[in-house]
Amino acid sequence: MEQYRGEPEFSIKGVSIMLITILIWVAFLLSMRAEAQSELTTTDLGLMRFALPTLVFLPWLLRDFKTLLRVKLRYLVMIICGGLPFFLLVSLGSQYAPVAHAGALVPGTAPLFVTGLAVLIFREPLPRYRGLGLSVILGGVTILLAATLFAAELNSQFSSELNYGPGHLAFLGASLVWAIYTLGLRVAGIDALLATALLCCSATLGLMLSLSLGISESNIANVSWQEIWPHLLSQGLGAGIIGGITYGIAIKTLGAEKTAALGSLTPALAAIIAVPVLGEQLSVTTISGVALIMTGVLLASGALRQTFRATRTRPTLTGIKG
Fold this sequence. Notes:
Keywords: Membrane, Transmembrane, Transmembrane helix. The protein has 14 helices and no strands.
């Protein structure tokens, strides 16, 4: 049985780094939600997501390539799963279901997959507080998804023809491979910079091979720079470079399960920030789902438990005479 390396203690530093990552993910989701129909193909978007980070991180990959050779192959494959496989599954799901569903299903269910794999494969114990927190998160994600589905039914003139099933399956598949990637970062024992370099370089190589073999197509030459630069900013710089590094650091600092639990805040924060940014309204159902997710994150991450223990062990000043 492989060594899982255990879960580190809850720390403010790790939470702060993960919150930066979550804000980057929220910006990415909101940019996709606000984006009109684009002429860019999935391959174009993938290249903007991975090619820019590849140019930045390739020197680190070449410098530390011998380090990768000392890592077990299955751990490297687990890290690669967070690149092109994850991106393609999200893109596939987006063809059948709204981006809002991806925001609820992918980061919302990832902690369930991470904990499930950690328990089943690495024999990691499941504390009661984490199991309770994950159950509450699942309830909140279910409410958010139900609210989104209900709104789509009301706004569609052809609600009987709506079929989000294939999209939801693709999003759940994306959540699963993201969980595999998260655990890979935890057990591989390499730093966040090298892991991000491996992920982005392997994804770029796969996309270039796909184009050269005629499997996929590109339309980037026919698209204006005004349409390209927001994608480069949100996907290449934000999610690809900054988000990749901060997520890896958060996993090393907090552990895979607590990091994934915090990541489920993404749909809740996206729903809140969409109010001032996109002019969307928060329904009672949405507010309930957001509140449940936030409560579940506090439980599953151990934040409430840590606060309670600190309160109980805090020394009190008694018996002091004037």
